[in-house]
Amino acid sequence: MVVGEIAIETDVVVIGGGPGGYAAAIRLGQLGQSVVLIEKEALGGVCLNRGCIPSKALIHAASEFHKLAGLGKLGIRLPEGNASFQLADWHTWKESVVSQLSQGVEQLCKANGVTVVKGSATFLSADRIGVETGGDFETYKFRQAIIATGSRPFVPQSLATDHESILDSSDLLNLQELPGTLAIIGGGYIGMELGMAYAKLGTKVTVVEAANSILPQTASHLTQEVRKQAKQLGITLKTATKVESMSRGDGGVTVALFSEANGREELTVDKAGVTIGRVPNTGEIGLGQAGVNVDERGHIPVDAFCRTNQPHIFAIGDVTPGPALAHRASKQGIVAAEVIADLPSSMDSPYVPYVIFTDPPIAGVGLTRTEAEGLGHRVKAASFPYRANGKALTLGEREGFAEVIVEEDTHLLLGMHVVGADAPNLIGEGVLALELAARVEDLALTIHPHPTLSEVWLEAAEAVLGHAIHMVNKK
């Protein structure tokens, strides 16, 4: 490796081409900044290439396949014989989706004057960065920098993956054959999303979670329907259970478990997937040489403008404290770009929605009732069941509900949560309502189209006010 003597000068370097990084680079280009976007793999990052998009493609395909068994009640008769799921064909379709999106990002970067460099970046100082590009090494001098290097699966040494039988979340999306049996270690959102998808495709799935319930970061009343559906899919849920070790043998993977209820036991499966969290990619990019601080968990603390302790260096996305969500990273990227261009911009909203693509899916924004009461609010809340919604019944999606939480005295909306079909799309209305500081009357007075799932918000809001039409109101 030969270090070049001449540094290429640019206004801004963006390290990482995921949802946050490419959004920042494109916005900077729009604002007239010269931008170098450095990505060591494919544009779009983990989310587009190995995470969000591939996983949702698998979840969608598995759900469509699973629905085939229930088409008879709609009057649809399939040809004789059992339907099959061809994983190889799914991979071809998934790759076409990923390719289309990745090419779109590349074209947008080019159209906005962003210079894309493929290579591994390391800070050399507070204003220089080195990039290994194959056998070459280039140096860039920058006025400002944005760190958007994302995260990777957390795998403790005792559960070390071999990427063949003991897998991480990315490996689970790259299987070439459906396993007969699968253990998912970690019942958070990644584990439950993928576990339910594989169960729908015919795999016998066991989910092992150390906490007392699956989806432990989500309010228990919101996860009740997921627990019920998981059992209907034949998934074995082992909660309050720890994994002591895993070993690979001729018969598959042996997982040694311990719980207070069952003591020590062993589970042997074809494959095991470790989905117990993610860690930020901050250890190998030379942050010390740039003088950028990290906390005890490897995250980079930032202010409301996404600035690190070095005012000219910004950090966004999974490398910063907070929920590791692609839409949060994208927003942070745009904020950082606009601050660099001296525009008034900041991360000044607490309303970052969450979405869990289980069956049924869960989505929400703002406070739950328990959280609101814990903060001292006097609360009114109501929920409206999917089984009373006409559109839900025509879709065969009876399970779930929409919940609205308001401040009792002012009727200000504090939180909106939904469990059920199309929850990931429905929550957009909730985000907008809370962002606009709407009152529950604003929601109740808004005419919602019929018949649609969106009417669950209308009815829940009216239930808070005591005059829902399609349910009995509480006295």
TrEMBL record:
Its cofactor is FAD. Residues 352-460 form the Pyridine nucleotide-disulphide oxidoreductase dimerisation domain. It comes from the Bacteria. The keyword NAD applies. Binds 1 FAD per subunit. It holds the Pfam family Pyr_redox_2. It is an enzyme of class 1 (oxidoreductase). The active site is at H450 (proton acceptor). FAD binds at K56, T149, G150, S151, D318. It catalyses: N(6)-[(R)-dihydrolipoyl]-L-lysyl-[protein] + NAD(+) = N(6)-[(R)-lipoyl]-L-lysyl-[protein] + NADH + H(+). NAD(+) binds at G186, G187, G188, Y189, I190, G191, M192, E193, E209, G277. Keywords: Disulfide bond, FAD, Flavoprotein, NAD, Nucleotide-binding, Oxidoreductase, Redox-active center. Its EC number is 1.8.1.4. Disulfide bonds join C47-C52. Residues 11-333 form the FAD/NAD(P)-binding domain. One of its GO terms (molecular function) is dihydrolipoyl dehydrogenase (NADH) activity. One of its GO terms (biological process) is 2-oxoglutarate metabolic process. The active site is a redox-active disulfide bond. Belongs to the class-I pyridine nucleotide-disulfide oxidoreductase family. This is Dihydrolipoyl dehydrogenase.
